[in-house]
Amino acid sequence: MSQNTTHGSERSTSLSAPAEGAEIKYYEIGSWAEVENVDLYNKGGLYPVDIGDILGERFEVVHKLGYGGFSTVWLCLDVRNQTWKSVKIMTADHSAKENDLKIVSHLREKSSLKQIEENHIDVPHEQFWIESANGRHLCFVTEVYGNMVSYWAMRQDPTTEETRVAKTSVCRQIVKGVRFLHNRGIAHGDLKPANILMKLRSLDGITKEQMLELTGEPEQFEIETVSGEDPRPHAPEYCVGPISWDWCDKFTTDSIVICDLGESFHVDAPPETTGIPELFAAPEILLEGVPGAASDIWSLACTIFEIRTGDTLFAYLWGSTTVNLLNMIASYLGPMPEPYKSAYRRIMTEQYGKTPKDIVGSSAEERGRVCPFEKTLSEERHFSRDVPDSDDLPVEEQRTTTIWRYSQEEVSNLGDLMRKMIKYDPAERIDIDEVFHHPWLKEAPDSQADDTKSVGKSKSFWALGISITTLSILSHYFLGFLRSKTRR
Known about the structure:
The protein is an alpha+beta fold. The protein has helices at 92-97, 99-110, 113-118, 149-154, 161-182, 208-215, 283-286, 293-309, 322-333, 340-352, 364-369, 372-377, 408-421, 432-436, 439-442, 468-487; strands spanning 54-55, 59-67, 71-78, 83-90, 126-132, 135-142, 186-187, 196-200, 220-222, 238-240, 252-258, 265-266, 381-386, 399-404, 463-467. Helix 5 (161-182) runs antiparallel to helix 8 (293-309). The termini are far apart.
């Protein structure tokens, strides 16, 4: 380990370490554990962290906040001033590219830290480097943030005017942040609800013991190598499970921050592609085109729709394929034009060895009769929630369901916004200034009146709001699953 990192306790082992330079194979830890991919604990990969480690001679690791394909994120106590910080540790390979650092430096050159924060962009207050057996790792220090915006949105009662205002406000904040980036020549490149977090009220004054009462003790899962050798020093002895979802409920505000600039790029020098998940990826990314600022507009539309409705814009479920997703897109936008049609044929031929049928999609006549986005938004929706203190009631009485619809005004306005943002041709999509001034957003406050305001009544229950279309798709996939099981 680097001299910048020490461990909370001495460790000994009678097993030998893996041979230098050899790729280490690990036994998989089940997906139920919600931990990082242990195969990344190899050269160029993740930094091995144990609870109690001191990072940068300053930040004591207390719990795990999250992880991604290129990093782990830790809840740390700054031992110098007893304040709480988030420390994100990048993989060695990703650190070497220094893309995050270059984007952050560009934003700092163009704007003050106050301007960046007022526009809901997360930039580190400081950064440092540490070393491990896997390489050299870049670390970013930020304030501690709360849960993903999608978790916050799930816990709101969608039938109330208060929720409509709060969700529209959150969406406006996201648009404001993207506008800030675009106006400085930067595309985010990975815009999705998982990269948008809720801000917290100050955690200052909370002791480590009090914090662990909130978070619970970290859950640990042993890491085992296939060879039987000690995973250290390339991996920690244990993976740490993520912090509980509700640990920060009483500190959560209605303000957001856009995080993770690792896929961001200068719009005048776009990469060949980005790592954004297919569900939020524009056609030019799905079909080997060039990403740009307009790709963010598509991703932003998908993000806004999910926050407001709780549904994915293109009802695309686990186990679905890219073809399913493209068919869903075509059902909204009609047949794929060139060059997407040719790219689709080429990719499918290379992958499956035969020329696929064209994706037909909806007809121009069908789309002319009714806006497909408005049609989806106008559907009857079901909202279910647990009845408080109902454990002693019969099961059927422990949940209540409300059937409701969005107002026609919102259906019209939000449907119009989606229609203008979701276009095959990037040049036909409205730009971020037009999104910002759209009627659906223009009356929304940038944030609730007081950034320290906590989320309200919705914290006391779990809720599920779902459209009829999503219900029917879920039923279709579930029945298909049952049939496949029966055939076996």
